[in-house]
């Protein structure tokens, strides 16, 4: 009974948005399925990853069809060989993002590069992730078969009261770093900082980091899957400890660590109907959009990735809801967003 009511309310709400938009555009919205493929919204089919520390919230809270318990990651917009998303519908339905990057460069503003540069993930940590660090482009290119390094950032979607994350470390110099790691002085070594929903964190290569249990994030990162595991809390997977990468970790960890203030970025939480910048670095720009009613964005970037992380609404008359991830191609032009929803957007620099 409850489900029926909720579903009926949802349909009524969606139809109201649609009808309002149809009236405003004199029915223009109804004839919008037109030819220009660069006006098509590229909705993605995510790829899911089961992890030792994963849970089931990607199913229960997000409504995705997850492969089972312990689902830790939703690779929402990815062209990485370890998880290449396909387009959900339209002209390019069924094509992988890596295929589109190679075959339809105009969709990405003819941006340079041999692979799609970014990767967007939702991470649901039911348990603590291992303590890890990523290399930069130079180190990964040399030691990891030409892979990109990994710069990443996190928008905290949810966190329990009193939640903390590991960001950075307390070693003063390389000697102390090696001693703390080789002798398992983890309590002294690891720097834990408090975080809450809505915080935004930049993780440069060389930054020791770990997400802790109960935290849910949206991650925007370089298209890379290179992680060096420093410490795994002594956990076993299938009866064996997971591989550690101590030598490579010590090679790449930045000493001393960047200050907490430089890592955790406070964003104004009350700005509505605007693209609020979260960060610009060498690899990406990221924004938060809090849509309440309606707003317009001009898509003049090579491409613009968007993830709906809360609520629902319309984009140029098309229904979108929490859990949808899509790319607006280069030359897309005017983007009309309507409804009550939160989105995280990103593009290259
Ligand atoms: Zn990471």
Folded structure, characterized:
- The chain is 19% helix and 38% strand.
- The chain has 349 residues and is an alpha+beta fold.
- Residues 30-35 have low confidence and may be disordered.
- The structure holds zinc ion.
- The site of zinc ion has 5 residues, from loops.
Topology (SSEs and partners):
Elements: H1 2-24, E1 42-45, E2 47-55, H2 57-60, E3 71-77, E4 79-80, E5 83-84, E6 86-87, H3 97-103, E7 118-124, E8 131-133, H4 137-143, E9 152-158, E10 164-169, H5 174-182, H6 186-189, E11 190-194, E12 200-203, E13 209-210, E14 216-222, E15 228-231, E16 236-237, E17 240-241, H7 246-252, H8 260-263, E18 264-265, E19 275-280, E20 285-299, E21 304-315, E22 318-321, E23 325-328, E24 333-347
Antiparallel strand pairs: 1-6, 1-23, 2-3, 3-7, 4-5, 7-14, 8-15, 9-12, 9-14, 10-11, 10-13, 12-18, 16-17, 19-20, 20-24, 21-22, 21-23, 21-24
Residues 132, 134, 152, 203, 209 line the site of zinc ion.
**Radius of gyration over C-alpha positions, nearest whole angstrom:** 21 Å
Ligand identities: zinc ion
- The share of residues in extended strands comes to 35-45%
Structural class: alpha+beta
What is the tally of helical segments? Answer: 8
Total strands: the figure is 24
Distance between the termini: 49 Å
What's the pLDDT, averaged over the residues?
Answer: 91
Sum up the overall morphology in one term: globular
Q: List the uncertain runs.
A: 30-35
Major sheet size, sense and barrel closure: 8 strands, antiparallel
Q: Helicity level, as a percent range?
A: 10-25%
């Amino acid at each position: 009974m409850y489900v029926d009511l909720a579903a009926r309310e949802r349909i009524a709400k969606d139809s109201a948005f649609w009808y309002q938009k149809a009236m405003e555009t004199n029915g223009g919205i109804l004839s919008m399925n037109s030819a220009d493929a660069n006006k098509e919204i590229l909705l993605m089919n995510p790829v899911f990853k089961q992890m030792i520390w994963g849970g089931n919230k990607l199913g229960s809270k997000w409504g995705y069809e997850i492969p089972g318990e312990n689902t830790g990651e939703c690779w929402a917009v990815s062209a990485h060989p370890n998880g290449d998303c396909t387009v959900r519908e339209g002209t390019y339905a069924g094509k992988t993002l890596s295929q589109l990057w190679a075959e339809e460069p105009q969709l990405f503003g003819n941006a340079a590069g041999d692979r799609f540069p970014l990767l967007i993930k939702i991470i649901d940590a039911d348990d603590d992730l291992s303590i890890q660090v990523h290399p930069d482009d130079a180190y990964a290119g040399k030691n990891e078969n030409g892979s990109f390094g990994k710069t990443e950032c996190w928008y905290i979607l949810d966190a329990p009261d009193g939640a903390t994350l590991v960001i950075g470390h307390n070693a003063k110099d390389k000697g102390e770093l090696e001693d703390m790691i080789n002798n398992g002085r983890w309590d002294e070594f690891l720097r834990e900082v408090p975080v809450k929903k809505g915080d935004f964190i930049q993780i440069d290569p060389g930054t020791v980091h770990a997400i802790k249990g109960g935290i849910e994030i949206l991650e925007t990162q370089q298209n890379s899957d290179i992680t060096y595991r420093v410490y795994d809390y002594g956990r076993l997977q299938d009866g064996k400890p997971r591989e550690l990468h101590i030598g490579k970790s010590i090679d790449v960890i930045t000493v001393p660590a960047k200050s907490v203030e430089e890592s955790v970025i406070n964003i104004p939480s009350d700005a509505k109907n605007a693209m609020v910048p979260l960060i610009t670095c060498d690899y990406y720009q990221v924004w938060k959009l809090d849509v309440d009613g309606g707003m317009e964005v001009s898509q003049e970037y090579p491409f613009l990735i968007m993830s709906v992380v809360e609520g629902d609404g319309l984009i140029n008359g098309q229904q979108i809801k929490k859990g949808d991830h899509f790319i607006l191609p280069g030359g897309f032009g005017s983007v009309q967003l309507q409804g009550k929803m939160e989105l995280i957007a990103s593009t290259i620099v």
